[in-house]
Amino acid sequence: MRHIAIVGSGPAGYYTAEAAAKKWGEEVRVDVFDQLPVPYGLIRTGVAPDHQSIKLVSRRYEKTALSDNVRFVGNVSVGSDVSIAELQSLYDAVILATGAPNDRQLNLDGHDLANVFGSAAFVGWYNGHPQFADLAPDLSGRHAVVIGMGNVALDVARMLSKSEQEFAGSDIVAHALDALAASNMETITIVGRRGPHQIMMTPKELGELMHLERASPQVDKSDLPPVDDDSILEPGLRKSVTLLRDFAAIPQNIHGEKPIAIEFDFFASPTAFHGEYGRVTSVEVERTRVEAGRAVATGETYSIPADLVVTCIGYRSSPIEGVPFDERAGRFANDDGRILPGLYCVGWARRGPSGTIGTNRPDGYAVIELVEADIGAGERKKGREGFDELVEKRGLDVVTFRDWQNIEQAEEAAAREGAPREKFVDVASMIAARGPL
Ligand code: NAP
Predict the structure, then answer these.
(1) Is residue 436 predicted with pLDDT exceeding 90?
(2) CA 146, CA 132: separation in Å to the nearest integer?
(3) pTM exceeds 0.90
(4) Distance of CA 361 from the midpoint of ligand 1 (Å)
């Protein structure tokens, strides 16, 4: 019998559990840990609430979670409730699937002004992550600045633009829905330090901006390179740039019909945040030009009004005591997923915050091959039986998958009309909803 601990129950965690169960069948026991009492990580608290079809992938993870040889161990924080060294002493392999939950910081002057947030915090807020549920961004201003030109920037701009009706069928949490419904935003400026050919936005996500009830995307024609230059782009990016060209062609009177403008500000590298009375009022940027794909400063600066700023410039993993960490890259130091024999990482914890949910599937299958190569004929450890002794000794309050199903039912029962669920946004309410022990 092989005993595997997977730390993190998001896509990377569950694809890895699936791979282990497929490879070893009855010859493996997998424990999937999460510090929250609820599973699915990024699917629950990262994926935008109006992208329900993406969230459906959790049904696949549920199938894995319900198989006899895989168990969910919720409400256990690896690093504080149990150390990595302890897990390593109990399991034949420990696989970190902890994602990249922290913002890459834009440490400019004024970054600590009120109403400047990183996307982990802002997305966590509208998705009801217990850590960020109390963020209370002030949406009473007229101008929001979103920094970065990736899909997260698009998610944030879209959330800030949608009407209450457009959130029908989504699982946006009530506190965010109420705050967004009362928002006064009129202009959302998406700031990119490079040009249209360097965006990280994918066509499907970018195309959604065309169909917003209240908002219209605006691109300045003069920012676009000659159309013939698009032929060198890979097909996905070429489609995205074609959409930017479509945005640039929208006539002024159509913009006028919608009360919110989503402006694309290219070739603009943030240099400082300015504020009054401790609250942000503007973002100072420096004009750039792109040379050989890199942003080069020109010395010309200007200021963009900003009552709210959300930086969407990528994420970093959380270091765990005793695990080698690559500070520069913001993820665990690893060689194709192997940190040390017996200790591995997978998904964003391995490769950084890139790719789609599906990218984690081959990652999960690959790391299980590494585990097999390392532990193939070795001695076996005590596994979950040993962990259960530790739970008893330490008085840990483990939340099981059965408990989660009770929590899920309570969330479904509390849903607004037409919504799939109303999430609990604090750990105590989640635990209270699991029902009698
Ligand atoms: P991303 O795609 O890496 O985009 C980050 C953006 O931030 C880039 O435009 C980057 O510009 C910019 N940036 C980085 N450092 C900066 C700085 N110091 N100053 C100004 N701009 C800076 O990251 P992401 O948007 O966080 O997305 C993470 C991953 O999740 C991606 O793979 C994304 O596709 C995926 N995702 C997918 C969906 C979806 O499919 N619906 C939704 C959300 C996220 P440079 O290129 O110039 O560095």
Answers:
(1) no
(2) 18
(3) yes
(4) 21
Q: Rounded to the nearest whole angstrom, what is the distance from the C-alpha of residue 201 to the centroid of ligand 1?
A: 8
Confidence of residue 377 (pLDDT cuts 50, 70, 90): low
Cα–ligand 1 centroid distance for 199 (angstroms): 8
Q: Are 38 and 404 in contact (CB under 8 A)?
A: yes
Q: Which of 98, 133, 1, 14 is nearest to 353 (CA)?
A: 98
Amino acid, single-letter form, for residue 317: S
pLDDT at residue 378 is higher than 70: no
**Model confidence at 376: pLDDT above 90:** no
pLDDT tens string 269-322: 999 999 999 999 999 999 999 999 999 999 999 999 999 999 999 999 999 999
Phi–psi pair at 204, nearest 5 degrees: -60, -45
How many CB atoms lie under 10 A from the CB of residue 346? Answer: 32
314 CA from centroid of ligand 1 (Å): 5
Q: Ligand 1: which residues within 6 Å by Cβ?
A: 51, 106, 147-153, 155, 192-194, 198, 200, 202, 205, 269-270, 312-314, 353-356
SS3 433: coil
Distance CA 313, CA 328 (A): 15
Instruction: Give the model's pLDDT for residue 347.
Output: 97
For 305, the token pair is 């009004």
Report the atom number in ligand 1 closest to the C-alpha of 106.
18
Q: Which pLDDT score is estimated for 380?
A: 84
Instruction: Give the chain's largest Cα–Cα span.
Output: 73
| DSSP class per residue in 183-244 | ----EEEEE-SS-GGG----HHHHHGGGG-SSEEEE--GGGSPPGGGGGGS-HHHHHHHHHH
Of 184, 137, 121, the residue nearest 315 (C-alpha): 121
Q: Is the pLDDT of residue 217 over 70?
A: yes
Residue of 43, 47, 200 with the most ligand 1 atoms within 8 Å of its CB, for mutation: 200
Ligand 1: centre distance to CA 1 (Å): 42
Report which protein residue has its CA nearest ligand 1's atom 36: 151
Average pLDDT, the chain: 96
Write out the two tokens for 216. 């219209």
Burial class (CB within 10 angstroms; exposed 0-12, middle 13-18, buried 19+) of 51: middle
pLDDT digits (tens, 9 = 90+) for 54-86: 999 999 999 999 998 999 999 999 999 999 999
pLDDT digits (tens, 9 = 90+) for 143-170: 999 999 999 999 999 999 999 999 999 9
User: How high is the pLDDT of residue 181?
Assistant: 96
For residue 76, how many other CB atoms are within 10 A of its CB? 23
